[in-house]
Design a protein that fits this description.
The structure holds 2 protein chains of 2 kinds. In chain A, strands 1-2 form a two-stranded antiparallel sheet. In chain A, helix 4 runs antiparallel to helix 7, helix 6 (about 140-160) runs parallel beside helix 8 (about 200-215) and helix 6 (about 140-160) crosses helix 10. Chain A is mainly alpha-helical. In chain A, a hairpin with a 6-residue loop joins strand 1 and strand 2. Chain A has 12 helices and 2 strands. Chain A has one domain (about 10-320): Ferritin (Up-down Bundle), CATH 1.20.1260. By secondary structure, chain B is of the alpha+beta class. Chain B has 3 helices and 3 strands. Chain B is elongated. Helix content of chain B is about 25%, strand content about 20%. The chains are: A mainly alpha, B alpha+beta. At the A-B interface, helix 4, helix 5, helix 7 and helix 12 of A face helix 1, strand 1, strand 2 and helix 2 of B. The complex binds fe (ii) ion (2 copies). One fe (ii) ion binds next to helix 4 and helix 7 of chain A. Chain A: This is 1,2-phenylacetyl-CoA epoxidase subunit A. Chain A: It holds the Pfam family PaaA_PaaC. Chain B: It holds the Pfam family PaaB.
């Protein structure tokens, strides 16, 4: 996991305009031509300040999502049913933390330190994917996360891997490789419950019912109501619209749920054969906003666990610090 | 959760009683950055694969093994402080441009068969 399509932006329009005014038009033209030719941008290149700001925001929030996303699943490591499931879950959670580190490094090449990103996470200034503000109540929740949340994240990450910023693409290439294991082990655990005893099926159906709304929220608000992102598309920061990604997800995964005789809690959900697009009832976007702004069932716990870890790990990091050492950003 | 009870028994054992004081990570607390080079098999080049944060090179190697050597084939890793990498400026890319006539550096620039054939032809007549 887990870059959702939805990337929170703090309202800061005035600064944005100011920055844009200071971009050298000649350099901007060369920069845009390079992207149009399909070339990558590297850390030492000139880039518009708005490109830099948007990428930091995107990659940083993606990194936070990996780290926080490991918490609901980490909960279940000690209780995973059987040795193989336990091993797979440990490996997956370790991968997610590794993804967080790869992504923090990519964001650091743009000039924001890892410490500053972690501080913004802890203070609530920087967000992470909304799905992780929900609890993993049963083992079936873990199979839904491993299968469907990772699947949704893969749709997003495969798209972003074709973006314009070199370090982010390289990190995503490695991440996508590992995600294929996450998806497969999740699908396998999901199928095991779906084809198991009536109690196992009921547990899975219950988890699906609870997770469907957060999954529909995952890619963010519909295109018609989200802010203008043409520039971000041209700069290959945003590679697909929220609706496109949501539709791609539904197209691949709804049939895989239905084929197991499971249902989804939306009577309007169906593929329109004439348009090729999926139709569904509008998810509750007010709830989505409320959860992003701290009102979800687990927001507080997630951040408190992170704070606890920072506080209790500090003595180790401090003991190994070299005060006065010049800290540099990653080279690439 | 209600009453601050978590579904995670480990979280409940922590007895999180966050005072509300902001937790701030100080600059440098995440240490320095090291570039990591990965060798897939004996005889292959070490290839740059990314970087790790570490307080020194020895620990950077330990973290690099965890991050870049835990799944795919690997027989060796190098680490070097990012600060010690010297690179050309990306803006100077055009100095590598190969638009000059450089076939004299290339095997394709030397046409021996033409000359041999011409020689053989001339001998027959
Ligand atoms: Fe994943
Ligand atoms: Fe991930």
């Amino acid at each position: 996991m887990y870059g959702g399509g939805y990337i929170f932006d703090e309202p800061n329009k005035r600064q944005l305009k100011d920055e844009q005014l200071h971009d050298d038009p000649e350099k901007l033209a060369a920069f845009e031509a390079r992207i149009a030719r399909g070339e990558k941008i590297e850390p030492g290149d000139w880039m518009p300040s708005e490109y830099r700001r948007q990428l930091i925001r995107l990659i940083e929030q993606h990194a936070h999502s990996e780290i926080i996303g490991a918490l609901p699943e980490g909960t279940w490591i000690t209780r995973a049913p059987g040795f193989k499931r336990k091993l797979a879950l440990i490996a997956k959670v370790q991968d997610e933390i590794g993804h967080g580190q790869l992504l923090y490094n990519a964001a650091e090449t743009l000039g924001k330190s890892r410490e500053a990103m972690i501080n913004d996470l802890l203070s609530g200034k920087s967000k992470y994917s909304n799905v992780f503000n929900y609890p993993a109540e049963t083992w079936a929740d873990v199979t839904v996360i491993g299968f469907l949340i990772d699947a949704a994240a893969i749709v997003n990450q495969v798209a972003n891997a074709k973006g314009s910023y070199g370090p982010y693409c390289r990190a995503l290439e490695r991440i996508c490789y590992e995600e294929s294991f996450h998806l497969k082990q999740g699908h396998d655990a999901f199928i095991e419950l779906a084809t198991g005893t009536p109690a196992q099926r009921a547990m899975l159906q219950d988890a699906l019912n609870r997770w469907w709304q957060p999954i529909m929220h995952f890619f963010g608000p519909p295109d018609k109501s989200s802010v203008h992102s043409e520039k971000l598309m041209q700069w290959k920061v945003k590679m697909a619209s929220n609706d496109e990604m949501r539709n791609q997800f539904l197209d691949t995964y709804v049939p895989k749920i239905w084929e197991l005789g499971l249902s989804l809690p939306d009577p309007a959900l169906r593929k329109n054969d004439s348009t090729g697009k999926w139709e569904f009832s509008d998810p509750d976007w007010e709830l989505f906003k409320k959860v992003i702004n701290g009102g979800g069932p687990c927001n507080k716990e997630r951040l408190n666990v992170r704070k606890w870890a920072e506080e209790h790990g500090r003595w180790v990091r401090k003991a190994l610090m070299h005060p006065g050492e010049k800290i540099t950003a990653p080279a690439a | 959760m209600e009453n601050n009870q978590s579904l995670d028994p480990r979280v409940n054992r922590l007895q999180l009683s966050i005072s509300g004081d902001p937790v701030v990570v100080r600059d440098g607390e995440n240490w320095n950055v090291f570039e990591v080079f990965h060798q897939e098999k004996r005889g292959a080049h070490h290839e740059h694969v990314g970087c790790v944060h570490a307080p020194n090179a020895q620990l950077a190697l330990v973290f690099a093994k965890e991050q870049f050597g835990r799944r795919k084939k690997c027989v060796n890793l190098w680490v070097v402080r990012s600060a010690d990498i010297l690179a050309f400026n990306t803006e100077d890319e055009d100095m590598f441009a190969n638009n000059l006539e450089k076939t004299y550096r290339d095997a394709s620039g030397f046409k021996v068969m033409e000359k041999i054939n011409r020689y053989k032809k001339s001998g027959k007549e």
